[in-house]
Write a structure and sequence with these properties.
32% of the residues lie in helices and 29% in strands. With 348 residues, the protein is of the alpha+beta class.
């Protein structure tokens, strides 16, 4: 046997490396395992399998038996095994963790006294993304001064990695809302006064210009009504709540969108429809006219509005993040009030 191949004993829920030299070598070259009594090294099953795959460990058990034991401990053991191998192959120094944290990641080349820098959750593409659970993961990591990552293993064993962070977006767009009236139609609002229409669009990027008029979505119409503009339907003034009810006839999420729109505008941001990009809003952090000419049409964020209990297949999340980054936008899931979760596809 090569001097670099260590021996381990399979003990049901872990592998124990008893020989001091073997234990020391595995611990010092990759920070594997936990040192226990008399210098022995306790390896998690996922660590042991990886070292076996690398040709650095020989265990007195079949790989099939170790896998079976792993699945008894963790129903997602196969996902853990693939994610661990992928991350180790990228040079990350990992230690198995508990709860919602599958692994802890340590700085490359770190000493044993150093703290971890990130927590990683490994999931299958068949698992369901939960906004609330992911938010809890990020908050717990932040309180421990850790970055949060999610590694998604697909059906073919490829792994896609996401950095997940809470963000606090804000901008400098705080336009003065002009006096004037919006005519409310069944599915939109129209500003007929050409001067008011121009001011709304040029100063606040509201609506879409059609000749001398500005055409508004019902979300924008409700917001402008709340901000002091007169809303008129059938020759009489109506309340913003009536516009919300009108919007709800065709869009069950309209109430949540209006709440989000109001909050985003209050942060100095400019929400516009995100339909072209498959999201609720594309969001500018500065007035487009103030951007450099080459960037004037690019919003910074693509925002999807969701309730706190939102869940979705990972396939849907993957599609949204990939599309957003493909058009140079940050993908944010927003749950009003004040909860913003950014997902970024990364290469660790």
């Amino acid at each position: 046997m090569s001097r670099d191949v260590s021996r381990g004993a399979f003990l049901g829920d872990h592998v124990l490396v008893l020989e001091h030299g073997d234990a020391s070598r595995l611990r010092s070259r990759g920070r594997y395992g936990i040192t226990v009594t008399q210098g022995a090294l306790r390896l998690d099953l996922v660590e042991a399998l990886h070292l076996m795959d690398e040709g650095r460990l020989r265990v007195d058990a079949r790989r099939e038996d170790i896998f079976s034991a792993g699945y008894r401990l963790h129903p997602d053991f196969g996902v853990r095994h693939i994610a661990y191998a992928d991350l180790r192959g990228r040079g990350l120094v990992l230690a198995p963790a508990g709860g919602d944290r599958t692994f802890l990641s340590y700085p490359r080349g770190s000493d044993f006294g150093e703290d971890p820098e990130a927590a990683i959750r490994a999931v299958s593409e068949r698992d369901i993304f939960s906004f609330r659970r992911t938010l809890d993961l990020v908050d717990a990591c932040t309180s421990d001064c850790l970055a949060a990552m999610i590694s998604v293993v697909d059906d073919e064993g490829d792994v896609t990695h996401y950095r997940v962070t809470r963000v606090d977006p804000c901008g400098d767009a705080r336009p003065e809302i002009p006096d004037g009236a919006v005519t409310v139609l069944r599915d939109r609002g129209i500003v007929d006064d050409s001067e008011v229409a121009e001011r709304l669009h040029e100063d606040g990027f509201f609506g879409h210009r059609m000749g001398p008029r500005t055409v508004l979505s019902l979300v924008e119409t409700a917001y402008l009504g709340e901000s002091g503009m007169a809303l008129v339907s059938g020759g009489r003034r109506i309340a913003p709540a009536a516009v919300v009810r009108l919007a709800l006839r065709t869009d069950p999420a309209a109430g949540l969108k209006i709440q989000a729109y109001r909050e985003l505008r209050g942060r100095g941001l400019i929400p516009k429809t995100g339909f072209k990009f498959g999201g609720h809003f594309r969001v500018y952090d500065v007035m487009p006219a103030r951007k450099r000419e080459s960037d004037r049409t690019h919003a910074r964020y693509l925002v999807q509005i969701v309730p706190l209990h939102f869940t979705a297949p990972w396939e849907e999340i993957s599609r949204a993040v990939r599309l957003a980054q493909g058009v140079r936008k940050e993908m944010i899931y927003m749950s009003p009030p004040g909860r913003y979760l950014r997902l970024e596809r990364i290469r660790p």
